[in-house]
Queue: 2 jobs
Job 1
Amino acid sequence: MTNRREFIKNGIFLATAGSFLPNFLVRTALAEEKLSSNDRRFPILVVLQMTGGNDGLNTVIPYRDDRYYQLRPTLGVQRSSALSLTDDVGVHPAMAGMKDLYQAGNLAVIQNVGYPNPNRSHFRSMEIWHTAAPDHIERTGWIGRYNDKYLRSLKKPLAAVNIGQEQPLSLVGNGAAIPSIGSPAQYRLMEPSSDPMEPPAKSHSMVDFIEETAVNAYQSSLDLQKALKSYQSSVSYPQGPLGAGLKLVAQMIASDLGTRIYYLSFGSFDTHRNQDGQHANLLKSMSDALVAFSQDMKQMARWNDVLVMTFSEFGRRVAENGSRGTDHGTAAPMFVTGGKVRPGIYGGIPDLGDLDNGDLKYRIDFRSVYSTILRNWMQSDPRQILGQDFSTLQFI
């Protein structure tokens, strides 16, 4: 028998063009009480997944360490090209916008992030980051659990959203499905013209779950269409899926839909061969899109309400391979940006003289980053989401 977790996993979302809702659900959706427009100053989290395993050493470059160039004789980014953040590190030359965010005091770089006994499988490592459970198999995601505990009671269909076609495990919880918005113009539900249907008997929780998901899908489709019509901005976003995704986030924030969490995926950063051009293009796309988004938020006077966090499932090996690329590694940097960020380099500089079988040793558990955001930004108890205490960092 299908359960609610399989319902979510299989992508049976009702928020697609051409789907139909029974009239009793339409009436229920329209009757949902909306939050007051005075509730607009809540904290907003934007999570950006850098899919594929980003090469952290060529993103945040330890250009004063000669061992970096010895281990990467063809891929190493020269100090003269890197964009300096400190005397010890700089970012890739394609990331001029993110250097500007750093200099403006709006970017934190969290170095050497990982977890014990790292896994180099894309699937398993991403699962670990999504569930925040490195030592066991967990079927719900950390954001999904936060949604169940803190957001579901708000009765806002778009309290958390995924910008994309496929819902990530991190958004899976035990409550109604978090909407996935692939094509905003097609994200709608059509009311049937036939006679109203009677509600099914609520014989078990699965029926309740499907009803709640359907109601949320219909109401969120109405809200989103209003957002698309009302948004106006002079900011020009870069071409590509990430620029379009962050522009949609800005549209939704401008329209006061009550969304607390936005999730986007971008990639692929799986650069096993001929890394130079592909990696540079990806980093430029990310940097330019984040700068445009920050400009948009500042124009709306919402930059202080927004926190953007990036992550990737793992970093790359320290030494380049024989195909002018890098293979799956372990620890890597994360970026956090927003108007309330405390800028700086957290976690130190990667120690290329103290490796674990050719890989970086992690210094910051990624759950400490989550814990910091949950406690200091989302104003919640991290133990209820992560299951235990983790140290708090100072980037917020």
Job 2
Amino acid sequence: MSRTANHYKTLGIPRDASAEDVRAAYRRMARRYHPDRYEGRGDSSETMARINHAYQVLSDPPSRAAYDESLRPPARSPAAGSGVGRRMRAARHRPWLLLWFVLSVVVLTLGWVAVVTLVPGR
């Protein structure tokens, strides 16, 4: 089973659903997609496997707690994204910024050379 599958979406329930809601949703989905009773297009065995796996995870309180924890985004420390390393990573994603900097230095240098050589009076 894929780690990216959202078991709550598979069963069509909210994250704060009770154990009874999980069981009722599983029974409803199992009746609908059971391979012996499914009348829709295609093979329902893969869908039924996802439904069974979702129910297995969400019906067991320790498994559900671990799954809910895995859905939570990782916490970042304040110091992890600061300093020169963060600016270097940001610059890698914006190559136009480096191009702009180089072109402005070239234009300013050429302008200064032109002023120094073409303006009389020094």
